[in-house]
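Q: Give me a backbone?
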Amino acid sequence: LEMPAGESEARPIWEATMKQIWGRIILIASVLWIVPSAWADDTVLLQGLLNQARNTCAPVILEARIYLISRPLDGTDSGCTLVIRGQGMLNTRLVPTAAMAVILDLSGSRAALHDFSIGDWTQPSVPPVAGMGVLLAATTTGASDMVLFDHVYITGRYSTAALYNYGVSSSSCLKSAFYNYHPDWGAAMKFSANNTSGVLSPFKTLLGGWLSTSDWSFVGCEIHRFTQSPYVPTLDLDAVGAITFFGGNISGIWPGGGNSAYVVFEGAGPSKAITFVGTSFYTDAPNHPASVFRADTSVELLLLGINWPPDLTLFAGGPYTRGTILP
């Protein structure tokens, strides 16, 4: 395995691990298998496996345990689909031990993530604050599309978003959950064609300007935002297109007042062909947001059989170039 750059202080542990490879990392039929260890910090181990997976196209298989992470994991610019598979979203957990810009950076990569969680779902009183749980973006050196989230759970306190996507299209999300407990900032999920949050990758240079962020399907996913701010949405969409939500639910907690919504459309350009089919919107506390949807730009929106609090305004802002509601 390749030694991550800047990890010379961990070399004695790394070399000892390689000598005891059958007790730590097993390569079987091109599958990298991690068995439990008693290390206090798993960052070096996980980064080495990601490096190997990017070079060999072997999937990384994670055991059912907690992996402690002290700095961002680099999954950028993979030459093949980067596959990471755990043993269940509550069984395999990647937990940050310090504040960081992003926990898992997949900029410039195609990736398939299965059956694990990122962040601390137990929510201690003062959990670490990370800018993002997962970053998806196009880079100057790598293309990114065809990303899959399959039974993945991202939770914690994120000042930008649990999942941030800038310029990655043609992807899917199945039965996954996205939670943000940051008290003041950050949506649970943000898709932006203009990178209005100005995020950067700690590893690669991102492409700039407007980038198509479109053609996503969400099936049975949960998106939740718990905040003390009356202005932060659960789902933030910026000039995106052709995004469909089948079922699932979107919720949040707001202190009352403000102009927030479950879903906010922002940005310099319109959002087109946004569809919600059978999705439920609800509030986890007595106070509702100001509306279900708020548009700071034009949006084409199709709603089919959605559920929302009957005393809540459905639309705010505008203009809507098309807002179709079917029972």
About this structure: The two ends are 56 Å apart (CA to CA). Helices lie at 11-19, 21-24, 43-56.
